[in-house]
Write a structure and sequence with these properties.
This protein has 346 residues and is of the alpha+beta class.
């Protein structure tokens, strides 16, 4: 065992000195488990996810002494009456009314390719036939038009939203059932929000079958917010890094939150709670390590986001040490993105 991770599931102990440099903490990565891959629902017009920052902070604090798994079920179909009429979409329909004709309709390509990129965002993918799925899902909205600015405004209004996916969705006009297995389609403009950056590798949702009706997507565009994460009380920062910190000393431990967005308050709470724990369990001479700095980032496995990582340190490290962009492990490659540092205020 290279080091004892202080934010373990139970039975915490003082951390041993980390080797120089420490690299990615695969012990904690393994302990955290895999993220929940969330697929936004296709049978609702709105799905609001209320991200509670205070609750996230409290959960991070509690995780210092206990970290039970919190599986999140896939956001799937909602129960309703058979053949019940569904809200009419505002996007143009396709004739002939088949899934393949929908996917090859150049109208949808033109809509997506001519959409403006909102100020403060960069486009990460364009005009795909897949929508984003994965950890960090923050909600879904149905729009009246293919309005990237409106979707951006919804993201900016949501805590810890860093990206959005806008796309055109072929939906059934009535809820499919045995008596209406393949109804005529209606077409919606959908906007989904995400708590971490997205790219073409996250646009893996190719649709689903509802009885004999095929829900599919076209004109799928992704956009990432370029603004840094917010400041957090009691800490200075953020400082933007290239990769993860690869420091020669001062490493206390790490915490991986598989389903958390990029939220510095989660890491700050873990850092503060770690200092409190260390003070209650000092060394034989009465000294203990203070968490004075944390590096937060999104860790991906083979380009699939695995959630938020918080690496804790007893001293501040600058950007010159943020040179761990990724590591191979067996046949897998773990990469780092959206890496930032925060230092305890003096």
């Amino acid at each position: 065992m290279r080091t004892t991770v202080l934010l373990a599931l139970a039975g915490l102990a003082a951390a041993a000195p980390a080797p120089s440099p420490q690299g990615l903490d695969f012990q904690e990565i393994d302990a955290a488990g895999s993220p929940t891959i969330v697929t936004p629902p296709v049978d609702v017009t709105k799905d609001v996810v209320n991200y509670d920052v205070k609750a996230a902070e409290a959960s991070a604090t509690a995780a210092v002494s206990a970290d039970p798994a919190s599986p999140v079920t896939k956001r799937g179909l909602q129960g309703r009456d058979a053949c019940q009429a569904q809200p009419a979409g505002s996007a143009p329909t396709t004739s002939p009314d088949t899934d393949q004709d929908f996917l090859s309709n150049p109208t949808y390509d033109n809509i997506a390719e001519n959409a403006p990129t909102p100020q403060g965002y960069s486009q990460s993918f364009s005009d795909l036939h897949g929508s984003t799925e994965g950890p960090g899902y923050m909600g879904l909205y149905t729009l009246e038009t293919y309005d990237t600015i409106k979707c951006q405004q919804l993201c900016d209004a949501a805590p810890a939203c860093y990206a959005f996916n806008i796309y055109i969705e072929r939906d059934p006009s009535v809820d499919p059932a045995d008596s209406c297995p393949n109804p005529p389609s209606t077409v919606n403009y959908k906007c989904t929000l995400w708590g971490q950056w997205i790219d073409s590798s996250t646009a893996t949702n190719q649709g689903q079958w509802r009885n004999q009706f095929h829900v599919v997507f076209a004109g799928s565009n992704g956009y990432n917010k370029q603004a840094p994460p917010p400041s957090v009380s009691g800490f200075s920062g953020p400082v933007e890094f290239g990769g993860a910190i690869n420091a020669p000393s001062g490493y206390i431990g790490a915490k991986v939150y598989p389903n958390s967005p990029l939220d510095p308050s989660v890491c700050a709470s873990a850092c503060t709670a770690q200092t409190a724990y260390n003070s209650r369990h000092p060394n034989a001479d009465g000294t203990f390590q203070t968490c004075a700095f944390f590096n937060m980032y999104i860790l991906s496995k083979n380009n699939v986001p695995q959630g938020l990582t918080c690496s804790l340190y007893s001293q501040t490290w600058d950007k010159s040490y943020s040179n761990n962009y990724g590591q191979n492990r067996g046949g897998d490659y773990y990469s780092v993105s959206q890496s930032y540092g925060y230092s305890l205020s003096q």
